[in-house]
Design a protein that fits this description.
The chain has 122 residues and is an alpha+beta fold. The protein has helices spanning 12-25, 45-66, 91-97, and strands spanning 31-37, 74-78, 100-106, 109-113. It has three helices and four strands, in the order H-E-H-E-H-E-E. Strands 2-1-3-4 form a four-stranded mixed sheet. It is elongated, with a radius of gyration of 14 Å.
Length: 122
Amino acid sequence: MLFGFERSQLDETAQAALDEVAGKLGPHKRYVIEVRGFTDKSGNRDYNLALSERRANAVVRYLTTRHNVPLYRIQKLGLGNDAPVADNKTRDGREKNRRVEVKVYAADEPGLTAQGTTPGAP
């Protein structure tokens, strides 16, 4: 899920992707959701870490309140700008780096993920 500059609110596209993932959780009894928040390189390190946490928190809040996903099934981490997927020197690259990645690991079906994120992707 991508975020606007200095934003941590989920847009409709992100909500739809999370709705899709949550809809696939129903039949699974054993799963863990990994939520990792990121930023571009704009701003200082402490600010970016806090912003990446707020982005990850927005995803966790949505999954727990909208879809009743138990909190104990979610592992969350804000990584700031430590793992860019694109070059921070370009506007397009910075937009791609302002993201949250959601991965679902299910014992009975490997590879459930939010749209746009693949298993094993950084």
